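Study the following:
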Amino acid sequence: SAYLPRHSLFVLSAYAGPKFLSFLFLWICLLGCASSRRSGSKCRDSDFSRQPHRVSALLAAASALSRQTGLAKNRDAAYSHDRRRQLPHQALCGGTGVPGRYVFCTLFFDGGLKTLAFTWGMSHYHIHDKIRHRIEELGQDEAAKNPDAPTMSPIMAGGLFTITKAWWDTLGGYDKEMQIYGGEEFEISFKTWMCGGSLHLVPCSRVGHVFRSNEFWQGQVYTVPGALIHRNKLRTAHVWMGEYARIVELVIPRLPQDKPLGDLTELKALRDRLKCKDFNWYLKNIYPELEPPNLAQAMTGAMRNPKFNCCLDTLTTKNQEIGVYPCHFEHGTQAFLYGKDTHMLRVAEHNFELCVYGNPAKRRLPERSCTEDFSGQGLSRYWLYKEDTKQMQLLDAENKDIHPDNLCMQAVQIQTPKSPFDLVLRKCDPSRQEQHFVFVP
């Protein structure tokens, strides 16, 4: 594959200055990111620096994995020049770190990408230690005994991996309807796992990601339309996640009318032709850390107060107080899931792992972990939604009976730092319209 040598880029920067170099990087990336990835190895992203021997580490890992699965016929074949042929259904990726600021030689891996997971909003989720613990506990992979061995990873960064051309072509490459970037890492990872292959991180193969320096750039350098990225991710969800796409839709903002999802017929036909496993299999075998909320016994969407036309909102905070904000009906910060069986109100934006609590003493509604017990602090995570009166009433943390203070959610029209409204707990009164909340899908 052809790419501009690093030394020539530094020579260029000496003449044209660092801003021109960064501008050149930006245009190479934007003009070619989506289309060049589909073109295979003709182009490469400009914001990565290879570690010496990165490729040989990947090929050695492919050889080792091929011997584990019995695909190598003999030792000589396993160590042949093109080791990738020994494992045709394998995809391998290296770790991602941060190179030296001006000299591309040292990679620092604190905060870099290792194994990569994701949330129900299809955002990257860095839980490498949790995945490692599961692999060691269950004895999955050679990595269970050797931390330097290839480790199974739920997904990978979308442009940093090695794969045979035959397997790449069989999988259909990237979705041709995707634009710019975002979503391709999910699509190729799902296809690899669910259609008979596997995806492993090779710790000894490393790549450096070059970030823009604040010394030369301030603020947002360029904008990427969020709707395009959301569309990419939703296309992947509707093809590969089956019924779980509904959960993704609850978290990801709605697409504008001028950006439809597009035709998915060809992608679904590929999935059926390859007899790929479903997403239930993926959750059970590859990514059990991602727990789906129970939609069968749930009310979902925005919680709208008709009197003020405001909705419950995280106000872009986490583990803070839940508020209300003028309804935008784009999911995201205003998406919630109320379990009729659990009586818990989960926050979709935070992967359904955080819940809305009631604090009777302060009459406020903090956000906390759904799995922890905060009753010792006087908080309760249990609610009763009364469909007849449209009220959300606080339950006692100990026995799930009606809280003795008889408190309900109530919207008030008062200016706060982030909203023209506020959310409080007040004595339940069915006649007060400020206490009426309806779920809007």
User: Anything to note?
Assistant: Residues 1-32, 40-46, 69-87, 98-105 have pLDDT under 50 and may be disordered. The chain is about 25% helix and 20% strand.
